[in-house]
Design a protein that fits this description.
The protein has 200 residues and is α+β, with helices and mostly antiparallel strands. 25% of the residues lie in helices and 31% in strands. The chain has six helices and 13 strands. The strands form two sheets. Strands 1, 2, 3, 4, 5, 7, 10 and 12 form an eight-stranded mixed β-sheet that branches. Strands 9-8-11-6-13 form a five-stranded antiparallel β-sheet, with no helix packed on it. Bound molecules: fe (ii) ion.
Amino acid sequence: MHNKIDLFNQTKNEIEKIWSTNKKLTEFVSFPQDLVLKEKNINKINVTNKLLDWKSESDHKFEKIHNLISNLSPFVSWDNGYNENEVGKEFLNRYGFFELIGPTGHFETTNMALYVNFLDINSHYPWHNHEAEELYFIVSGEAKFEKKNEAPVILKPEDTCFHKSNQPHRITTNDKKILSFVIWKNKFENVSKIVDPKEL
Ligand SMILES: [Fe+2]
């Protein structure tokens, strides 16, 4: 039990360290100083073990945080947000997130939410949007990010991507999976919704 709490706290401290050295993160939202670690049920989904089995390469800039998150994977409350009718079973087997920090996160705060987001290789996360403003921060891997009315970009570790409130966006991976922090601020009560491509 003690080791588990240590792991959560080490992860939080490492994220705070990354925050303090990254302007994009600090300008988006300041790192909360009121975090309280809560007891939260563990929920395992298909990607839980995929992330547990994915350890960082030793020359990677974010090796430490990658491996802390990977080790945390079996102790968190995973979710995949959508149902099978919306996105298909295949996608749900390849995608997942957990709320590490936030109003209902492992670390509780009302100032922002930080989700750890995993997307496997050869995956397509369809067009979706949400009311919250969002910043992606890539920890490991690579994916193509698209936003409505903007050219697609390939994002790699340390890259960030901002989504305006309700701006539709989608994500595609090929031969690399991707591990990201997804940070929400302002109006994060409502969850993400799939957008019909005909309505873009
Ligand atoms: Fe989003």
